[in-house]
Specification:
alpha/beta; Rossmann fold; Helicase, Ruva Protein, domain 3; five-stranded parallel beta sheet; 14% strand; elongated; binds adenosine-5'-triphosphate; binds magnesium ion
Amino acid sequence: MKTEKPKLLIVDDEERAWKVLKINFQDRYDVLVAKNGAEAVKVLDKEQVDTILTDVKMPEMSGIELLKHVKKTSDWIPVVVMTAFGSVENAVEAMKAGAYDYILKPIKIEDAELVVKRAVEYSSMLQENRSLKDRLKEYEVPQDIITINSEMRSLIGLVKEVAVTDASVLIEGESGTGKELFARALHRMSVRSEGPFIEVNCGAIPHELFESELFGHERGAFTGAVSTKKGKLELAENGTIFLDEIGEMPLDLQVKLLHVLENRQFTRVGGTTFLQSAARVVAATNRNLKDDVESGRFRKDLYYRLKVVYLHVPPLRERREDIPLLVDHFIAKHGETAKKKITGIDREAVDILRLHSWSGNVRELENVVLQTMIFARGGQIAVDSLPAEIRDSVGPLTEHVPATKDELQKEKVRRTEKVLMDLERTFLLNLIEQSAGNISEAARISSYDRRQIQNLVKKHGIDVSKLRDV
Ligand SMILES: Nc1ncnc2c1ncn2[C@@H]1O[C@H](COP(=O)(O)OP(=O)(O)OP(=O)(O)O)[C@@H](O)[C@H]1O
Ligand SMILES: [Mg+2]
């Protein structure tokens, strides 16, 4: 955790201007000064700056050029541009080039203070996210499951624990939540990781072919069975068989599958020899199987056989804090495909993605990011490159452009509060995780007292018990 003052870089060629700012900011910020863009670039090479406050018109290198440089080299540093009243086009250009915000000259100190404070908070949130992500990379075994959500973290912990056993696993969750990702992670972490991972999509196989698909068939077992064929269960050998959309499995086959799970042996269709099966069974469904059991669509005995270990993957709308991380992950993942140099996404666009309801969950988010990357012009993804149906689905944030000073002020407060809440939540989750859910330890690390931490936990509705020792 950072204890020193945040570093603010002021860039202005006019001595009187930077002096006034410096005097006003130096008690809360570590203030650095540069006389033009080129000097600023030199400072940035040496120092870890948290926020830049820059004039536009300067000799050698303008504020806009500096901004473009920062966007390319260190895009987590927010740049606030100061522009003379009457040259609003500068401000527009700066915002388009990715400035965090702008203030008009002559500068009102209260305005500057507010904007800089917000920018620094935003910057520390970005840095926090970056370090969280770095840590995720380090010690999370399934590196491809991107999440900072507590429930998801518990699931990952559970997967680690049960991976080494032979227990059957049932994974439930809405479409696109990452069920297959969990199934594969489970396989990779298990002692069977050297064996095959065989997938069966139970929803895609015609009923009459199902049995032969699963158990295989002997030559001549039925018309069209011209040669002997191994089934998926046999192919899975000592690996994992992943029964996707298990809820679609026909009832008569459910009986046969149950039989295999109980006796660990089966015969090919038309065959008489008993074959052994050592495959680990992982099943997934986006239905509520319990309901199907009650309505008689799914066999109760098979349900309990499969559900020795149960994972419920929460929908994306219940873990919105994962959205910024996932977006970054997909930008990196699809950089090649989209053939664009996309460096990231701006905060308003992220806000919109965070508010969308995502009925198609992570898969829908991934598709939207990819689609956006293809149509973006390069640089940062901004609101106007998001698909219209996403922007429209969110509403107020984008539609409501403040028209008066009063409205603007209210909107600023609203958005600032949102950023602060997010920041606080990320900070808290990070802290709880560092202290393995031990409140006293969290208090010690953060120099809050225990009661303050408990209040914060309550305010953000975090279930600490779920985070303990994951
Ligand atoms: N936490 C995550 N981190 C990174 N990628 C994810 C995450 N969750 C899902 N994905 C990605 O989203 C896509 C959908 O995930 P997956 O196929 O595992 O979902 P599913 O629950 O099996 O969906 P369906 O029910 O439609 O079969 C995949 O490309 C997967 O890599
Ligand atoms: Mg799937």
